[in-house]
Amino acid sequence: MESLEPPLPLLYLDVDGPLIPFGGPPGRQPEHLTERRIREVLGAEAAGHPLLTRIDPRHGARIAALPCRPVWATTWQHEANTCVAPLLGLPPLPVLEEGDDADAPYGVHWKTPLLVEHAEGTAFAWLDDEIGAADRAWVAAHHAGPALLLRVDPRLGLTEEDFTVLEEWLRGPA
């Protein structure tokens, strides 16, 4: 017998900005992981990557506990599963494959049409540091289901406030 429950919402995750903060004042970026810990988890070849130390491993448990289906939506593509997911304690996640920028209208992020196509009307949340008004308008015009486009400040990465907004949206009426 098939379940009559709607599928869990999708959660599209960008890496640079939301999970790896950047762009703040020099020397003011958080460092949550040591090079030693990165080597322990990923191996020696990942050591020396200057941004991985900024990943907050606590975010993985928060993401895993959410009532949603996470999907990477990042230029890291499949490397997110080999470099980022293990540091967060997440299993490999599906990856939204990069498309052709020509598919996105002027001013709309290249990911936006791909997310809407991939979601196929299913509710989704998108965490990214490059979401703008054109993306919101495009999703509103082309996506039949509920959507939360949450712009994350790239200087801070995901904050408690971001998680609160996301959790409330996911647990609220869809």
Structure description:
By secondary structure, this protein is of the alpha/beta class. It has one domain: Rossmann fold (3-Layer(aba) Sandwich). The protein has helices at about 35-40, 60-65, 80-90, 110-120, 135-140, 160-170, and strands at about 10-15, 70, 125-130, 145-150. The longest helix has 12 residues, at about 160-170. The protein is globular, with a radius of gyration of 16 Å. The mean pLDDT is about 90.
Share of residues in strands? 5-15%
Instruction: Name the helix and strand elements from N-terminus to C-terminus, one letter apiece.
Output: EHHEHHEHEH
Q: Rough shape? A: globular
- The number of distinct structural domains comes to 1
Backbone CA Rg: 16 Å
* Quaternary structure: single chain
The structure class reads: alpha/beta
Largest sheet: 4 strands, parallel
Helix share, percent: 25-40%
Strand order of the largest sheet: 2-1-3-4
Helix count?
Answer: 6
CATH topology: Rossmann fold
Q: Could you say what the CATH architecture is?
A: 3-Layer(aba) Sandwich
Count of DSSP E strands? Answer: 4
What key attributes describe this structure?
single chain; alpha/beta; 174 residues; Rossmann fold; 33% helix; four-stranded parallel β-sheet; Secreted protein
Topology:
Elements (H helix, E strand, L loop, with lengths): L9 E4 L21 H8 L15 H8 L3 E4 L6 H10 L22 H9 L4 E5 L4 H10 L4 E5 L8 H12 L3
Parallel strand pairs: 1-2, 1-3, 3-4
